[in-house]
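pinned: reference chain
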Amino acid sequence: MTPRKYQEGDAPRLAALWKASFPDYIGYNAPEAILAAKLAVDDHIYVIEDAGELVASCLVGYDGHRGWLYSVAVAAERQGQGLGKRIVEHAIEQLRAMGCIKVNLQIRGGNDEVADFYRRLGFATEERISMGLRLS
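pinned: its structure tokens
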């Protein structure tokens, strides 16, 4: 199970993975909307497939300086098998190959299990204030 780049035929399976992993992805965050918006910019989406099922994903952003990880998901029944680590490490290698010097990500407050996962991969909490402005 080697990570690979997203392919057009992956769309329904990727949307299903995200719907199961992120049940509050609705409206502007609906999986189909996220996928369409991302593909309008670039195709830096990585997946792991096993027996025809997408079991992990990572959407990657890169602005020429910093990289971002988004929508890192592992199918619930496959968690604890190293797939999250594998997809994140693959995404980081892709960013490194593009010349990226730092990788960022955000997780929701109180999501201690996910924070611990990223700490084990070498990420550290940075003192920042995360701000947002919805344009729609």
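why pinned: The chain has a mean pLDDT of 95. The two ends are 39 Å apart (CA to CA).
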